[in-house]
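User: Here's a structure from my thesis project, written as structure tokens. My advisor, Dr. K., wants to see whether a designed sequence matches the one we expressed. Can you design one independently, without my sequence as a hint?
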């Protein structure tokens, strides 16, 4: 992993929002029920079971106030299981402030399936937290694919996709950017580039041509694999490399 991202990941790892996305979510609710009973929480449970088929909805509301903290949490767990395959969604909203000044507000949604003995998950966590006087807010996503959909004029477009550790953007306007490494498939050009009127600048990585023009005095240069050419006052004045045919 590039150093730039590894540094960011280290900060994310230490957050409560990260913890909210950690761990698997499945149809086993016994641990959730035990915790709810220990905290004297309000709990409702809807459950049906028929042989190897099981469906359950569990809702837990917990409020705690003591000498050290004020705590409130709402949890909703929805699951279905058929044999060894299962699907579950867990939604949790947690708020807490401790006497020492640490506090957090975390809202998380986790979805998970177990299929052919393999677990797959997706989730989102929204967090605002303060610890040792330092405030941190963040939104975290976990998924094999993250996409932004745009429905306009009856058509669906995908302007932004994150998949397999890569970001795909159809079109972007960037005011200022810092890039450690870059791989270009086609070309880079200035907004005013025009090959007819000899304006602007272009780096063409397919045809291996670099062109730079100055419209004020009609000057410019072109360079490719065959040589270097200089353009001034509407005429080519220098040609180094293969001669013009």
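Assistant: Designed independently from the structure alone:
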């Amino acid at each position: 992993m590039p150093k730039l991202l590894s540094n960011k990941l280290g900060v994310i790892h230490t957050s409560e929002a990260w913890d909210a996305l950690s761990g698997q979510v499945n149809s086993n609710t016994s641990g959730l029920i035990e915790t709810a009973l220990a905290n004297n929480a309000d709990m409702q449970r809807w459950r049906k079971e028929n042989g190897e088929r099981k469906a359950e909805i569990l809702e837990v509301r917990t409020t705690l106030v003591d000498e050290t903290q004020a705590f409130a949490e709402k949890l909703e767990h929805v699951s279905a299981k058929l044999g060894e395959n299962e699907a579950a969604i867990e939604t949790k909203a947690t708020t807490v402030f401790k006497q020492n000044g640490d506090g957090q507000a975390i809202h998380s949604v986790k979805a998970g399936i177990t299929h052919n003995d393999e677990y797959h998950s997706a989730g989102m966590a929204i967090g605002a937290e303060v610890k040792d006087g330092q405030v941190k807010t963040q939104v975290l996503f976990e998924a094999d694919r993250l996409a932004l959909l745009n429905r306009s004029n009856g058509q669906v477009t995908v302007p932004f996709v994150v998949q397999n550790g890569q970001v795909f953007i159809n079109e972007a306007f960037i005011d200022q950017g810092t890039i450690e490494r870059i791989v270009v498939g086609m070309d880079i050009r200035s907004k005013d580039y025009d090959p007819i009127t000899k304006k602007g600048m272009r780096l063409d990585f397919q045809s291996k041509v670099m062109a730079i023009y100055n419209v004020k005095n009609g000057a410019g240069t072109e360079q490719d694999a065959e040589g270097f050419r200089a353009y001034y006052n509407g005429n080519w004045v220098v040609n180094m490399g293969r001669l013009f045919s």
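When you compare it with your expressed construct, this may help: The chain has a mean pLDDT of 89.
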